[in-house]
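Tokens as discussed.
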């Protein structure tokens, strides 16, 4: 039904987003925050809609001004509600970036420009240090 409407823009909220564009909207780590809703229905409906359709997760980037909600990788246990393949735009109070059609490296670099100013330098440093993106987990002994 959603796709029958032309030029659908799916604007959804997120608890956190990683630099590849994956959005978590239902949990904080392993703790369920809100449960699964209809976010994917609207994202797929927008993607299949005729015209200039897009999927846009929106979030306020600093939780209580202390913790970034934009991460190099989602927290352990965080559920991916919107996959990076479905997310076209990321919008914050500091701007918007289009991730559609970008490589993983380009997708990692773009959101740092709209990250909370207190966390931009750290995110850029983490992306630069990663030989591959997303970074590989550290080896355990």
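Sequence:
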């Amino acid at each position: 039904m959603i796709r029958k409407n032309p030029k659908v823009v799916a604007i959804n909220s997120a608890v956190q987003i990683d630099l590849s564009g994956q959005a978590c909207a239902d949990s904080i780590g392993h703790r369920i925050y809100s449960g699964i809703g209809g976010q994917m229905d609207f994202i797929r409906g927008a993607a299949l809609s005729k015209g200039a359709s897009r999927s846009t997760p929106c979030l306020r980037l600093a939780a209580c001004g202390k913790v970034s909600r934009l991460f190099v990788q989602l927290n352990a246990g965080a559920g991916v509600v919107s996959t990076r393949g479905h997310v076209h735009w990321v919008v914050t109070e500091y701007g918007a970036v289009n991730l559609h059609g970008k490589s993983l490296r380009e997708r990692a670099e773009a959101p740092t420009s709209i990250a909370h100013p207190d966390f931009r330098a750290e995110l850029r440093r983490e992306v630069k240090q990663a030989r591959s993106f997303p970074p590989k987990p550290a080896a355990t002994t």
